[in-house]
């Protein structure tokens, strides 16, 4: 079901504020949105977007191509802008990214989404209340900002979780599955790519090559680019941290395997004297000295026990046991 808002001016700013008129997002029905003279912001399904019958040639094809790519990208055309967003989850490391697209011209900003992701993000924009510009370009800027503004806190939470994983890896009694660490690695890699792509999108929008946005609006995307770059740097650090966790876990596995092999080696060495004795006296030869002596078995048992005890004492002295 289509969700529509109109950008309505909320009065002139007071002295000392920006000279641009303040505005708000006001809910309207579909019919009013189609006939409104003020800029419109809407969330539509793909079918509803096709039914709009936009006059811009190639807009539908461009959106289909961008959405299929499952990446963050923007394409500037002479009379409109289309873009796609693949927003990864900040809380669920195993969740797939939320995919939706957007179309913007001077009169309308339309998000094409089959789910609820764009709706939730736009609700955060609405919660701001009064916007500083009654244009689609400014609304897109605020939308982008809301996508990123809380991510430093989310990355901090992710780092805290990874530190807990590290503490458990250093604890010999804990057991961390390899899949847990790999999920964190995939998450940090996904976030790193996401922030880099968002920075590229913001850079393209700030250039405003098609002059679709006002000159006062396009430079605002430089702030989005700067924020995305900082987040990408932080995500890169977490990605390297996840690699260190993987190496730490691999080292722990190697040490555990070495410990098992050490036990097998010690057992083999302890039984080596017995193996030698049984091998020597197990041969079917009658010329071996001592076979006729009735106390030979006692001597052999005592010698085997003495060798085994000596080896045990040697291993403890070397702290191998």
**Total individual domains:** 2
- Structural category: alpha+beta
Shape: rod-shaped
Major beta sheet summary: 8 strands, mixed
Radius of gyration: 35 Å
| Low-pLDDT stretches | 17-21
Strands of the biggest beta sheet: in what spatial order? Answer: 4-5-6-7-3-1-2-8
Oligomer description: single chain
N-to-C SSE string, H for helix and E for strand: EEHEHHEEEEHEHHHHHH
Written account of the structure:
This protein has 321 residues and is an alpha+beta fold. It has two domains: 3-254, no CATH class; 271-317. 56% of the residues lie in helices and 13% in strands. The chain has ten helices and eight strands. It has helices at residues 30-35, 46-51, 59-69, 117-127, 136-148, 151-170, 178-207, 221-270, 272-281, 296-317, and strands spanning 3-9, 23-28, 40-44, 73-76, 81-87, 98-104, 108-112, 130-131. Strands 4-5-6-7-3-1-2-8 form an eight-stranded mixed sheet, with helices on both faces. 27% of the residues are buried.
Task: Please provide a brief summary of the model.
The chain has 321 residues and is an alpha+beta fold.
Produce the secondary structure layout.
Elements (H helix, E strand, L loop, with lengths): L2 E7 L13 E6 L1 H6 L4 E5 L1 H6 L7 H11 L3 E4 L4 E7 L10 E7 L3 E5 L4 H11 L2 E2 L4 H13 L2 H20 L7 H30 L13 H50 L1 H10 L14 H22 L4
Parallel strand pairs: 3-7
Antiparallel strand pairs: 1-2, 1-3, 2-8, 4-5, 5-6, 6-7
Spell out the key features of this protein.
alpha+beta; eight-stranded mixed beta sheet; 10 helices; rod-shaped
């Amino acid at each position: 079901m289509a969700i529509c808002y109109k950008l309505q001016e909320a009065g002139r700013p007071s002295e000392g504020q920006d000279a641009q008129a303040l505005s708000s997002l006001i809910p309207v029905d579909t019919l009013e949105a189609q006939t409104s003279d003020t800029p419109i912001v809407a969330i539509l399904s793909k079918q509803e977007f096709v039914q709009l019958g936009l006059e811009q040639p190639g807009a539908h094809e461009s959106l289909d191509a961008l959405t299929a790519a499952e990446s963050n990208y923007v394409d500037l055309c002479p009379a409109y802008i289309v873009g796609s967003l693949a927003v990864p989850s900040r809380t669920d490391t195993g969740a797939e990214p939320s995919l939706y697209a957007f179309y913007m011209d001077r009169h309308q900003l339309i998000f094409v989404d089959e789910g609820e992701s764009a709706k939730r993000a736009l609700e955060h924009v609405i919660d701001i209340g009064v916007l500083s510009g009654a244009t689609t370009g400014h609304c897109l800027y605020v939308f982008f900002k809301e996508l990123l503004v809380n991510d430093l806190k989310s990355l901090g939470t992710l780092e805290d979780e990874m530190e807990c994983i590290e503490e458990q890896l250093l604890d010999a009694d804990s057991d961390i599955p390899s899949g847990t660490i790999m999920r964190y690695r995939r998450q940090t890699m996904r976030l790193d790519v996401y922030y880099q792509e968002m920075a590229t999108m913001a850079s393209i929008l700030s250039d405003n090559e098609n002059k679709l946005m006002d000159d006062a609006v396009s430079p605002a995307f430089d702030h989005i680019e700067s924020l995305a770059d900082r987040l990408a740097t932080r995500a890169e650090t977490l990605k390297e941290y996840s690699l260190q966790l993987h190496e730490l876990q691999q080292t722990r596995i190697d040490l555990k395997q070495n410990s098992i092999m050490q036990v097998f080696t010690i057992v083999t060495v302890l039984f080596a004297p017995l193996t030698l004795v049984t091998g020597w006296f197990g041969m079917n030869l009658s010329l071996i000295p001592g076979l006729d002596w009735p106390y030979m078995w006692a001597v052999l048992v005592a010698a085997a026990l003495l060798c085994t005890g000596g080896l045990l004492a040697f291993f403890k002295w070397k702290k191998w046991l």
